[in-house]
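2024-03-11 09:14:02 INFO queue: dequeued item Regulator of chromosome condensation (RCC1) repeat-containing protein, len=437
2024-03-11 09:14:02 INFO validating residues
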Amino acid sequence: MHRLTRPVAPIVRLGFAAAIGGCVARPAAPEPISSASTVAGSTTTPAIAAPADHRIAAGEGHTCVLRGDESVWCWGRDSLGQSRSEAAPAAVPGLLGVRSLSAYDAANCVVTRMGLACWGDDLFGQIAMPPSRQFYPRPELRRAPDGSVDQDGVLGPQATCVLAGGRVECWGEIGSSHVPGEDSRFGPIATGEQGVNPITGWRNSPRRVVPGIDGAVQVAIGSEHLCALMPDLTVRCLGSARHGQLGRVERDLEAHHAAAPVAGLVEVVQIEAGPRATCARTASGEVHCWGSNLFAQLGVGDASKLIAARTVFPGDVDPHDRFSPVPLRVEGLPPVRQMSVGVSHVCAIGDDGRAYCWGTNEGGQLGDGSTERRATPVAMLNVEDAVDVAAGKFGPTSHTCVLLASGKVRCAGHNRRGELGRGGPELDPTPADVEGL
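2024-03-11 09:14:37 INFO prediction written
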């Protein structure tokens, strides 16, 4: 997730959502909150009012964590400079005063006192615009066309969005057909002209303003859609509706270039997106998800609430591909204070300090000691006093890492690329400490 945030009056210290925070001065990196906070004018538990800024983030085969001294340490796959070290956690040099971070695929972005800095994969121009090389091995500040430093931003699958002067501006790719020269019908941002998508052409698309979401306080980027949390704590989405990504019933399942409200969602304080699914956390700690359920990532045990994709789309469709065009509440969770949406699974931190996950589990990423797919939440083993969670983004064989109040990090799942931060088997479904932190 890929989401970005800025403070909004009704929410105390609302922060960096997939991924990152707003264009204003920001507080120091958040520590576990022990006093009550105010949400929408009423006193709530600190668990519900905790900031959305992430202190731990996971890509497709690497993980990064923000430590108490505001330094960032990464480990796992380092094919494009994204982790700095495959063997053990290593500090990322050149970063000062980091407030929050995000990761997607093989790239990272962090919010620092000086502004937004990113490094790693730039194949789709998601880091630099205009792009100058395939990857960036060290963090570099992102600059707007006028030369000013971007203050906040969020990574998506192949795109980055920033908050700039009350507007959302994005570049890279969202929703392309992934074939050069073909129409990009599913992109969330377009002029309305058939086949023209000024932000998401094949790749290396120029920086563009996303229409209809001015004033957004968080943004979550999917592969073919984009959602924004608005100042009134509602959510608006645009892009493809083919898998229910827009959170509303649409007769036209192709591209929707005008943002419109997600059905029935109010008092939302956090949004996170995977490629074709989105989840929202409310001020009361509920989690509601919509979009594709191909990997059971909606957390719905009752399949009758879902639409079978093969009944809507002709041709060769995965028989397990089901979706919901409207938000569905994830049952079986305590009040949630933080969440993370991956490609094939979702995890959340409850106000009891435990981590709960659901979805595909082929890599053991749910951390319940098994590799069984879970349609509803299960508690991760060996996790207490958790403050943040990162769901990896490597499809059905992924990983999950949890940041504890003590500063320790525990990870479970696929470990072929060293993403668990320890030696041992290529797959470990039981969470254990990252070594060297």
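2024-03-11 09:14:37 INFO annotate: The chain is about 0% helix and 40% strand.
2024-03-11 09:14:38 INFO item closed
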